[in-house]
Design brief:
- Residues 291-302 have a biased composition (Acidic residues).
- Belongs to the succinate dehydrogenase/fumarate reductase iron-sulfur protein family.
- This is Succinate dehydrogenase [ubiquinone] iron-sulfur subunit, mitochondrial.
- Its main location: mitochondrion.
- The chain has 312 residues and is an alpha+beta fold.
- 29% of the residues lie in helices and 10% in strands.
- The protein folds into two domains: 52-149, Ubiquitin-like (UB roll) (Roll); 152-282, Fumarate Reductase Iron-sulfur Protein, Chain B, domain 2 (Orthogonal Bundle).
- Strands 2-1-5-3-4 form a five-stranded mixed sheet, with helices on one face. A two-stranded antiparallel sheet has the order 6-7.
- Helix 8 crosses helix 11.
- The chain is elongated.
């Protein structure tokens, strides 16, 4: 009797919610069972023993007062694991006038981006640091109130790179299934994960000085990362037009590879590399590869593509 048959005979009588009991009835050596079921050494977080001082940037344009830093004292039992927990406690228990953005609380939406102890981060996934904490809004952005900044210009620049698929036959885009091979799909890894939190762009000195409201200004790391994502997408057919729109002394070439964007990105992406690759494509030192797959016909009246899937 082979091992698979023996396991299948055991399964009906095993309580699946008990891992140790399940493993004990399988024909596996005790040494391996011990390794599988042995608990891991989990390092416990030591609770805070002292109160924590949190200094938060405050500004309300309706009061016409100058910005100032307000300090809050939080007792040890009220200190949360994440910085966002501290802000929630301040707003709910100390000062309900404090304004900040938040939504998902798990590093997905990018709403709670702010400057924490001098570094742009997401408050929801930033562990509460030891010692005092200073919290500011994202740098070099117009402040609406407290930690809430105006992101209209940031989103206008994102829209300027036209973040959607563009085809030569625009009238058939919604009717055709656009195929993509696994290899072509892997090319956009590290690009589509961007959550548009603006941590990278607001940490870039070039964006501070040249990312203004003019249409020809520097687009910033976030927008250029997405521009590269659509340029290399195998389903997009307007990569040449996209590159020509970026061929401007400010839009793209204001990047001086300071690489603050890479350090600030909460998703561990590399906008600096994407910008460098865009420059190579504009100087024709690198070209976009042909897609591995052709798209099927819309209906029987259209001729099927003759090119077959490339074998890699």
């Amino acid at each position: 009797m082979n091992l698979t048959t023996r396991v299948l005979r055991i399964l009906p009588s095993v309580q699946l919610f008990s891992v140790r009991g399940f493993l004990s009835k399988l024909p596996i050596p005790d040494s391996i069972v011990g390794q599988v079921s042995a608990p891991r050494d989990i390092k416990k977080l030591e609770p805070e023993s002292e109160s924590k001082c949190i200094s938060v940037y405050r500004y309300d344009p309706e009061t016409c007062d100058d910005p100032y830093m307000q300090e809050y004292e939080i007792e040890p039992q009220d200190i949360g694991l994440k910085v966002l927990d501290l802000l929630f406690f301040i707003k709910n228990s100390i000062d309900p006038t404090l304004a900040f953005r938040r939504s998902c609380r798990e590093g997905i939406c990018g709403a709670c981006a702010m400057n924490i102890n001098g570094i742009n981060r997401l408050a929801c996934i930033t562990q509460t640091p030891k010692g005092s904490i200073k919290i500011y809004p994202l740098p070099h952005m117009y402040v609406i109130k407290d930690l809430v900044v105006d992101l209209q210009q940031f989103y206008r620049q994102y829209r300027e790179i036209e973040p959607w698929l563009q085809r030569c036959e625009e009238e058939t885009v919604k009717k055709r299934q656009l195929l993509q091979s696994i290899r072509d799909r892997e090319k956009i890894d590290g690009c589509f994960e961007c959550i548009l939190c603006a941590c990278c762009s607001t940490s870039c000195p070039s964006y501070w000085w040249h990312g203004g409201s003019q249409k020809e200004d520097f687009l910033g790391p976030a927008a250029l990362l997405q521009a590269y994502r659509w340029v290399i997408d195998s389903r997009d057919q307007k990569h040449c037009e996209r590159l020509q729109k970026l061929n401007h002394k400010f839009k793209l070439y204001r990047c001086h590879t300071i690489m603050n964007c890479v350090k600030a990105c909460p998703k561990a992406l590399n906008p600096g590399k994407a910008i460098a690759l865009l420059k190579l494509m504009l100087t024709e030192q690198m070209k976009k590869e042909e897609p591995d797959m052709d798209n099927p016909p819309i209906d029987e009246s259209e001729q099927a593509p003759s090119k077959e899937v490339k074998k890699k």
